[in-house]
Fold each of these.
Amino acid sequence: MKNREKGHLRTNIKFFRDVFLLHPYRLFALRATISMGILAIPFIIAGLPYFGVTLALGALAGALSETDDHPKGRVKSLSITILSFFISSFSVGLLNNYTWLLGAGFILSTIIFILIGGIGERYRAITFGSILVGIYAMLGVEISPAWYWQAILLPAGALFHGILTLILIFRNPWRLLDQQMASGFRALGNYLEKKVLLFPSHKEDQEDINKDLALLNVNVVNALEAIKNVLNNYAREMRNTEPLNRYLQRFMLLQSLHERAASTHQRHDKLGNSNEQIEILEGFGEMLRQLAYASRMVAENMLTGTSYIHPPALEWISKAIDDKLQTMPVEEAQDLILLHHNLHRSHVSLKYLDNLEEGTSIPRLRHDERTPFQRLKEQLTLRHPRMRYALRLSLTFALGYILQIYLDLDKGQWVMLTSLFVSQITYSDTRRRLFERLLGTATGIIIGAALLQIFTTTAAQVLLMMGSAMAFFYWLRKKYSVAVIFVTTFVLSAFNIISNDGGINIMIPRLVDTLLGATLSFLTIRFLWPGWQYRRISGLISTALEKNRNYFQAIAKEYKEASNDDLKYRIARREAHLADNELAQAWNSMRQEPKSKQRNMENALTITYLNHALLSHLSALGAHREANMVNYNDIESLFRQIDKKMSEAGKESTIQEEKFSSDLSKLLMTLQQQIRGTEAGLKRQQLRLFYNIAATTSKIIDELKRTSTL
């Protein structure tokens, strides 16, 4: 009997691990739904549905305002959240009878909240939640038993959810950091999985694969940024930061794995000119597949606490490739040796995951030394994207508020609610959100109307409301259009519980208000600082080339004398990847813009592709900086020459001249001669890396020339 009970327990634990622990979004959705259910259901049973639903809305807003903080930081964030929610809802109740004063106050507070949110991630979620609570308060003030009840219920709902979350966090204070770290390793696993397609590959297939890799690279770099921010948040709240060492080590490991993964030593179609080379390339592909699997296993280890088991296949695949390389003619093997070294180092780093002696060293992190006031002050200019966003959103609210009054819209506050979710900082993001919101709302209304005909009892509608809430939270960070469907069914069922047939009656007004809010958001960003990407591309290219050059200089310093503290090197590498990300995202956004604004799109794509290729070659050079393969004195002049040309290319990307001074043909010819005159081996492979960097820089210069003549 006891064995059977233990078996059931193990089965249940495994089920919980597989369904929730391995999927943080599901766990987040479950936690938020439980807190909403605990608040709403007793009041609904007691015949006080307004109180229950309002408390649940407060919990919903509180869940959306969560920050990735150390438990002590979460206490501070929760305090600020509750205070902000109270001020927002209290002001709405107090000024409800003063229509224009309420509108002016809400619009002004929106600008203030958005700018405060720009100070940091901790404030961004809180201020968004505060604006959301203000709109919720406007929606519910007419049916509130007294003007002050929402100022009590909405913050109370958020407080209850916050306390429940804090209890769980204090039981496992490292969970938030584990989740961010796991997200980074999963993003790396996806990148590696896509790179498998290059081994082997044909030239005509590589462009599409590399485009996908550039976009997947954005996810990895963003994940690294998120991890760094959470690590700094934890470090600020801890007196003794020694327990952070394990996470710092894994953060450093993730960075080094990413640098090697992003490396490109040679064009992949040039590597497979013989059957033996193709066979080795297939082995590299399998190594990458196993490294992707290993990265996901590290993520699972972070999320569940299960032991990390290094894939045994990596050991024998790496050994088989090495044996094969030893038997090949040196001339054929030389281009593959560095690539194998790169993958082998990644395998060894993962094998000794938490071994301080064999594994990755513990890094020092850079902290943002700007004060909150300095960060706020930087936004106080019309050139800053966040200030423009604040003004656009407040204008959209103002127009929506005026329409609500003069057209006497039923539940017209939904116009502003839609604008809050649709309006984004960029045109492309706003356009995408607009279609997702409209499609999701229309679909949700159809589904909700059908379900309300089926779920006619209060108990059934409570189940529908709770199920919709959980589905909304789950899909919110995965696919927004699906999340909108479920938040619509949530709203319909909630209003139906408060007032019989209330959900049915608000379907058409909600659809009309959604259409109005989405239209206002689109028109506002279309004509007020749309920020067309073609105007930004030149500056982004210049920045990317400058950051690549800084990265190249940092690599040169590491080759000259390897440092014990490579913080400056990692900062240069990080900034190069962030600049590459911005360029890739700008090109991707341009595709969503009107055809008339897609100027020089092909050139932008080419330069974006070439910049990522240049960064890949630099990563290859940087990944081998610890190998000391050649004497620095032998390559110092190459570093200087390429550095000079990269500097000139960066200047020419912003100064459109008839004649471009940067010409790398002489340097490329010199490198070709040196490669031919050098015996096969590490020195020759090193020269090939320099040649690839110089050749890609030359192609960027040629493309800049072509752009300047258009």
Amino acid sequence: MFLRFTSRTNADGAVVRYVALAHNRRVDGQIKPDVLMNLGREDQVDVAGLQRLAASIGRHFGGDEPAGAAPAGAAARAASLEVIDVRTIGATWLLDALWRRLDVGAAVRAATGARRFTAGLERALFALVAHRAVAPMSGLPAAEWVREEAAVPGLSTMDDEHVRRAMDLLVGADTQARVQESLSLAGTDRLDPLFFDTIQFACDDGEQIVIGLAVTKEGIPVRCWCWPGGAGDDAVPAEVRDDLLDRHPGRVITVVERAFSGADDLAGLRRAGEHYIAGMRMSDGNRLVAAVLSRPGRYRHVRDDLRVREVRLDGQDARFVVCHDLDQAQHDRRERDEAIVHLQTELTRIADQHARDEAARVRAECTLRAHPTLGRWLIRLPDGRLKVDLAKARAEARLDGKHLIATSDPHISAEDVALGYKNLLEARDLKAWLLPGAAARRSGQRIRAHVLIWWLALLLIRVAEHSSGQPWRTINRQLGRVAQVTLTGPAGTVTQTTPLGPEQAAIYRALTIQPPARVTASAPGRRGARGRSR
């Protein structure tokens, strides 16, 4: 007899497992399981009762073990188990499910030919992408991360040769962006409008490159580009439009950062014949910004804690959208309040500590005023003493969580303006997070491979965020607590996954992904081969 586990998927995507007591019987020459008793849902089974039943069976039929010695014998057997390997599996398991759902392997295979793209190379390529998404700041190369840290489905080990071959194959497959084009429609069906952004990146060998990214308003990446650092700004959007409009007719809107704050900068963008979305500086005394903010109007809710209102000014071709992020407003207010309390405490401490040494007091206050972030809150009084500028604090409080966006597109909605700008800024942050650990240490000839790996990682991350409603950092942190543990003992070797908490289970359920099985491998009578204990 044995415990038999079955599962079914509910209409909401939740996976429910059931336990039954069963035994095998022979029917027409074949072995079939016969259920003796249904024990119910796995999460509602009386595990303690089953353990007592097993102990009772051991006491009555164990032979050599005297009555009352079963608990001690069980403890002794448990003590003989040795943990030989522990690896994180939660996030790699989720990414692998999304990888298969989007048919990334099939897209690469179609672009390269089945004979070149073996199963081993497909797994190595996925491992490179998963490493960028899960552990970009770990400091470990991808091959070592696979060997020592992570449980990658279908891949037990990887070396530098696997890495080199997988990267070369990906670059060759995407020469004409065939891989990206086949995946862009798999990730989303809403490709109008598309938002385009660029970022300059420096390699360790001094070579400068420009990375371009086109995303949907939900932030799903559609296409990336890689140009030499000297590529002209006017030529880049034209090439992007030509590449995109051949396959995705619609609007391509260039997004620029807050460095473009003046009317001359915005007019320069329009001379290229492209529409733009430009962030504008809020606190630099710009008269255009002051005029926009002084106009009254009601905010409209966009999503979560983001709301917007549109402003039009006489004599201006651009439309202006004031965005108010309530979460960011709370963050800004908390940071400012903490900074002011810290400054007031420091000024009191300096005054008390150097009451009799004016020169020491002046040096300490000068050091405080030179602080790169705290110094802006200080003003000097006529007598030379420093004071917290509360008037400035009150003025900036009116801007908490707000940013101003200008656009030349007369048709795009204010909501799409806000979402497109926000998602590309978040993607820019992910560029800084996902790229430097891999690309900055290598010469320019490998940069395109790393950019494509980053693009694939960003695609999986955005799909996970969009489906779960949670940021990737939260998903990665929660699923990073799910581990795969390999134990060995006299009876053999078993690999088991740690139980899911409610947060981890909710993430898998939101993405309709079945979590890793509790017992993933069992090898009676031999020790595990993965072989690194912690």
Amino acid sequence: MKISKIYSNKNFKNIEFSEKFNAVVAFIESDKKDDTHNLGKTSLIRVIDFLLLSSYNKNTDKLLGNNLFIGQDFYGELKLNSGKYLVIKRSINTATKISFKLNNSKLDSFKFDIDWDEELTLKKAKAKLNQYLDFNVLPNWDYRKSITYFLRSQQDYLDVFKLNKFKGKHKDWKPFVFDLLGFNGTLILEKLEIEEEIDDLKKKIQTLRLEAQIDTSEKDRLEGLLEIKKIELLENKNQIDKFNFFKEDIHTNKQLVEEIDLKLQAFNTDRYRISYEINKIESSLSEINDDIDKKEINSLFEEVNLYYPEQLKKEYEDLINFQKSLTTERKEYLTETLSLLKLDYTKLNEDIKELESQKSDLLSLLTEKDSYFKFKEYQKKTIGIEVEIERIKDKLKAIDSTLILENNIKDKREIINDKIAELKKSLTARKHSNINKIFNSIIKEILDTNALISLKLNKQGNVEFNADYQNKTDLLKTSESQGTTYKKLLCVAFDLSLLINYSDKSFYKFVYHDGVLEGLDDRIKIRYINLIKDFCEEYNLQYIVTLIDSDLPKDKLDLIEETDICLRLNDKENSGKLFLNSF
């Protein structure tokens, strides 16, 4: 597929493209030296992408969301690999309605009055355009997945493989790139999807453990406890059925004596001890006196006419200060201890109060002669046991569910290991070998150095893609340009190697590279453009490059000929800009 025409009903410099080499050139003519990015050489990518049915939202689209484009209709004419021409119309006001017209030959002008074959909604239009394009490369992916490799804006030169639009998970782009390089992307996709399933199972296990407060290692203990509770429930029900509460009375009496009374005795002993310690500390604090009257001491010395040398006075003051620091530390320690003891005392009082209440209830039950009252009380106990049994059962169910999930995770990890083994075997086939050779030949021709596309599995068994120079350090040392410029060349070399590799297939036959010449040495620019023109002829490719006139080599201004220029822009006035406006 190639681009034949891009035009519009208003505010647009209509463009007819050559089937081979095309240059969009911005000429800087005004004295103000306006920002060349406002001329439209980069914005043209967005218009082409819009006509190729990208998503559109007026509120978020930084370019086409501008009110300037209200009422604007864009038209694109594509040359299909079948040799026929497809005209597409898409309007800003009704961006979800797309019109198609298939012709045997290209339009002889920028025609608006067209008898359209059909008008479709966006989703159906994408499917229809996919049919028109009829790519036999990457049959598992529609044309939208790969379009960004052939519409590279400045933001798409940051990484050779992971484009700016691929901001999601690895499964959203790695399987596609694997397919693009000739491998089976399904292997990566299946592995990543299973890993997502494992993550979901882990979250479910975590939820179960938090909600049910379980530990799978406690299963045997819980099953034993369940058996005890069932026996206890059965005995309790038998007593109730017979209206015989003798055993329950014995149990209650035992609970009263052995549990509650013993606890009360221990608590009261602790309360007495804490109360005693509180009284002792409060007494000690009241007796501490850290006020020392130095005037009174001096007066005492004068009364007995005792000589009081300065050195002795200083030593005595040091002693007083030391004593004061000891007193202060002791007060702080006693105060802190007192505070903790009072908290313990309060807590003990609450516990004793609770136990006294339980004791009162049990005594009341033991001394109650009314069997019906006892029946009701023991029935409550039965209900409590039943609730406890259900709680234990719920925990056991949660443990069983957790164990099933853990086994599922184990099984899925075995599947992942199989997928990793398949990926390792797949990489040894080096299906990308031809693309790699073309890629290296392009870099070699332009920079006289070697470059390599390589794939490997990381520690997690995930495929990593890499494209880099073989003598990168030397390359950077011998040039004023930095890594960003050379990364850009890797990106364009990759795109071209794809087009050349699939040139005998039904696939994209064009690529649009924005600002690729910026920052390059003049000798590299000359080699690059000459190589591109050769590729266009040899492999029947369409190439679109954007540049400003200052990007042209000073000693070879005719590198881009007049016939190569498909769009001429300038900053002198609005008529020189793509949209005939400034905004």
